[in-house]
Write a structure and sequence with these properties.
single chain, alpha+beta, 5-stranded antiparallel β-sheet, 6 helices, 5 strands, 64% helix, rod-shaped
Length: 236
């Protein structure tokens, strides 16, 4: 009885804990991905909008080489590629645009959003490219018209590594929680089962003719009331 009841209680508690943690991890994984992607998108959009402001206030009056140099420095800081392109997808300043990226900029849906003055966020594979990319495109506005777009892009693998590192931390926390829950369940199951074991032992003595056998009542819950009733029965 000791082994079976202890085992059942322990397995039940562990199954509940595992179920809760696994469900929590699945939800957290999706929320963490969405949070990191949204934060990265907002960060890139903010930087691109700053570049639009700087372009209208400063870049128009300096040489193209100096603009490229400044965009290169900012790109290293952001660990990303930064380009300015016109509405036809042709490079104005910054990192060269490869053909797949040019095709993306010229897609009707993508271009229409830029012409409406909307920011565009894209993640996934570019046409004819195996590596996934994460990019934002912010309309390059000047003199009350859309001149093109500012594109900030980086490999999606970089963001995925960041997401995975956070998930690993969450998983480690879950494992620690399971271990603590396992230890707690062992103590809880033993505390619940111990009075029943004593009652079983006392019942054996009574069956052998040793009447009046008493057990110690240590709680006032259901198990404690059962132990009290057993003592009354044994006395009578």
């Amino acid at each position: 009885m000791k082994k079976s009841l202890n085992l059942k209680l322990w397995l039940t508690i562990i199954a509940l804990v595992l179920g809760v943690f696994l469900f929590s991890i699945l939800i957290q994984a999706q929320q963490i991905r969405s949070l990191i992607y949204n934060q990265q998108a907002r960060y890139y959009i903010h930087e691109a909008q700053e570049l639009v402001t700087i372009y209208n206030n400063t870049y128009k009056n300096i040489e193209g080489e100096r603009i490229n140099e400044r965009l290169g420095i900012l790109g290293k800081f952001l660990n990303a590629n930064i380009s300015m392109a016109n509405l036809d997808g042709e490079l104005l300043y910054g990192q060269p645009l490869n053909e797949p990226l040019k095709k993306l900029l010229q897609e009707p849906g993508f271009k229409a959003k830029v012409l409406r003055g909307s920011n565009v966020v894209y993640s996934g594979k570019l046409p004819e490219v195996t590596d996934e990319v994460f990019l934002v495109s912010v309309p390059l506005k000047g003199q009350n018209q859309i001149l093109g777009s500012v594109i900030i892009s980086s490999p999606l693998s970089t963001i995925k590594q960041h997401v995975n590192s956070i998930l690993v931390i969450a998983l480690i926390g879950a494992v620690i929680g399971i271990i603590l829950a396992t230890i707690s369940s062992i103590f809880i199951s033993r505390k619940l089962v111990r009075p029943l074991i004593k009652m079983e032992e006392a019942a054996k003595y009574i069956a052998e003719g040793e009447y009046g056998r008493q057990i110690q009542v240590t709680s006032e819950d259901e198990v404690g009331r059962l132990a009290h009733s057993f003592n009354v029965m044994s006395s009578e």
